[in-house]
Amino acid sequence: MSKTILPGSTIGILGGGQLGRMMALKAREMGYHIAVLEPKSDSPCGQVADQEVVSGYDDLDGAEKLASISDVITYEFENITHETARWLEENAYMPQGGELLRITQDRFVEKTSIQHSGLKVAPFEAVNSEEDLQEALKTIGFPSVLKTRTGGYDGKGQWVLKSSEDANTLEFPEVPCILESWVPFQKELSVIVTRSVTGETTTFPVGENIHVNNILHQTIVPARVGDAVKNKASEIGKQLANHLQLVGTLGVELFLDDSEIYVNEVAPRPHNSGHYTMEACETSQFEQHIRAICGLPLGRTELLKPVVMGNLLGQHVNPLMENISAIGSAKLHLYGKDEAKQNRKMGHINFLAPSIEEAIERMNQLKLWQ
Ligand code: AMP
Asked: Which of 178, 208, 214 for a ligand 1 pocket mutation test, highest count of atoms within 8 Å of Cβ?
């Protein structure tokens, strides 16, 4: 049952981080009110919301409170407990549903589902013990990467195994894992796909992602790959949206290895690699997400100008503040986080230019990321 949620209504967001903040800012521009649930007040999203529900993510009373003041519920992160998701599905209007959350919370379930959609993933096996690991290594081999099934992000909960020595010296984490074959990729790409409650589907231009220390550093758009690869990546996004019966936004991370594309992982929400859309596309990923869950027509997704997005981590904030005039006309986004901890995502900058080369040059000129 899909509804049209008109401007003037209240959107409830589970999670108070930067993704919620950027959804909320866009939604407010469009005339919506925002309520947010987050364990601490004054969160990045709380700062720009009309109402804050200060509550744990797994506290059903909090979810009930959020539902009582919202016309539609969405989320900005995937680690929502099954109980909360189920309660919201049954007692509130959460058009994205809980099934995609269940799938994306567990790497084994996620990869299995991607495989069932007919797409390629790196060969993987579930491993729950050191014995399982030795057994799985017989088929997966080296190099490979051991990942915890739940809770890992930005390379946390991952161990690269280059040789049997690495495998023998590894202290096996006491949680269920998967062992995955290493993909010797030439490039990492991503595509953001949005599907509305009416079934209308769009993809944003494919991004080329560069990671440093497993954290996204830079997204370059248009990606420096041929049209055939771009088209294939968009098709993968659409195929997944169909297979998963997506409502809302899905960030799809891809590895390009020769002309083969592997799906690495998916995130059921706007994605860091889609932040470039905020100024560089006719519609941003955040506006598109709001349109999708509210049953409005989706916006056009064309790229207006080549762009490079650079992530600002904790260590980049002070140097930037000391030399703020150097950003010129680049677009600064800060998330309102107080503590600039090492490697914490604090904001991002979008560099738009007539060509990708110039956009990269403008980013380099800032000398923030050496
Ligand atoms: P993930 O948390 O799975 O997105 O992994 C973080 C990063 O580690 C990816 O963006 C890749 O740079 C790298 N990585 C993860 N899995 C693999 C793999 N199977 N082969 C090659 N690189 C990988």
From this structure: 214
* Tens digit of each residue's pLDDT (9 = 90 or more) over 121-149: 999 999 999 999 999 999 999 999 999 99
Q: Where are the domains of the chain?
A: 10-94, 123-181, 187-366
Atom of ligand 1 nearest to the CA of 180: 19
Instruction: Enter the tokens of residue 71.
Output: 């016309």
Superfamily covering domain 123-181: ATP-grasp fold, A domain (3.30.1490.20)
Total-model pTM: 0.97
Helix (H, G, I), strand (E, B) or coil at 332: strand
Q: How far is the CA of 185 from the centre of ligand 1 (A)?
A: 10
| Whether the Cβ atoms of residue 41 and residue 35 lie closer than 8 Å to each other | no
Structural fold of domain 187-366: D-amino Acid Aminotransferase; Chain A, domain 1 (3.30.470)
Give which of 312, 216, 222 is closest to 271, Cα–Cα.
Answer: 216
